[in-house]
Amino acid sequence: MLKLREKGSFSYLHLMKSNNRRRFLQTFGTGMVGSLALPNLAIRKNDSSPIIDLTSQKTDNSEAYWELVKTQFVFAPELRYFNNASLGASPIYVQRHTQSCRELLDGFPSKYMWGGWKDEKENTRQLVADLLKVSNEEIALIHNTTEGMNLIARSFDLQPGDEVILADHEHTSGRVCWEVFQETKGVKLVRPTLPILPESVEEIVEVYRKAITPKTKIISMCHIVNTNGMILPVKEVSKMAQERGILVAVDGAQSAGMFEIDLHDLGCDFYTASAHKWIFAPKGIGIFYAREESQHYLKPLIVCRGHRDTSIRRLENYNTRNLPELLGLGAAVEFCNQIGIEKIHQRSYELKNYFRSKIAANPALKLKTPAPDDLSAAIQVVEVIGQEVRELKEKLWEEFQIDCRPMSTFGLNAMRISLSIYITKADIDYLVDALISFTK
Ligand SMILES: Cc1ncc(COP(=O)(O)O)c(C=O)c1O
What we know:
By secondary structure, the chain is an alpha/beta fold. It has 2 domains: 20-89 and 340-437, Aspartate Aminotransferase, domain 1, CATH 3.90.1150; 98-337, 3-Layer(aba) Sandwich (Aspartate Aminotransferase, domain 2). It contains 14 helices and 13 strands. The chain binds pyridoxal-5'-phosphate. Pyridoxal-5'-phosphate (PLP) binds at residues 144-146, 171, 173-174, 222, 226, 251, 253-254, 274.
């Protein structure tokens, strides 16, 4: 960690006049605003929160241990944040590291922007590569998943009649780029319908198998869909695609950091993720993976000096860029490593099972995420029978200070609950009690 200078306090409250509250809550109901401006909650300062090195407690899986992990995330007082799938929080270790990088940069801008952090940048690349079990020569450090999906969709010189498979649950960030860059040229976007509650991986593989034709060139798919948290079988689809000479691009926005991932084993050609969700990196930093054999397909979205670089670094060559956030990603992976990705993986499933068992006990609550572990993990959606989900979101916020995301598409009418590592079983008890209070 770099040394941090003392900071004064700052409050967002002056930005928010109380007569704006109603309007804020209405906007907030869309889930897009997140907790940028909290109307009635003070902002907790984290200057005095101690950073705890969790490395020495690798074998501890007690609730007390996870309460300790939670102390490293400084949420606004009273806020119950079940909205990690929209945007993650950075633990204080990451916040302070990033802030100290900003201060160094502002102390000598030209030095740090133009090469002073070369080693640190490469170290971050290596940390990400290790997390995803690939080579550092297969990782580019970009801004977010949206950029990664754009990069892929823009790279290909597809011809009219060629086909790209995009299932119906693809996020707009993985869909619009194909529509704009390929569909307008006459490329056909094939949009198969995924089951909402599949009982097996094979059920989903079959949907992709049926969608493939001799004209299919690319399958673009989420690793976890943002709608109901369903995990898609990337490994099985990649195997099937490879046998037919089809490329597979994966939107990993919701999977990177949630559980163990071995990208070579998954077998996809491309994978991109937003590190500001489940890896807890600073906002606006993303990951791009291209397996070595498939890198030649890719063209940088932005070209400038250095564009002749033949390595994967040519895809992240923006000239001036957000280096403190990029180095903050390194600190974020270090933080995850202190806990251990295997342990985070195990915790994702432990919280899922705890949450599901509590929900299943109540007939007025209906789970709308598939149950098997290979089909879902730390994102679950639940309907409260008789409640319109957008109204419910507002009530959960106003009465319980719970933030989560309402999902209305695909007839879900369900609340999306993110069970990140700062969520404890006591938090789940609180949430479920809150949900139950609206069933009466
Ligand atoms: C599945 C999926 N893909 C892409 C995105 C877009 O992420 P970003 O805005 O970080 O690019 C999201 C955001 O929620 C998502 O859930």
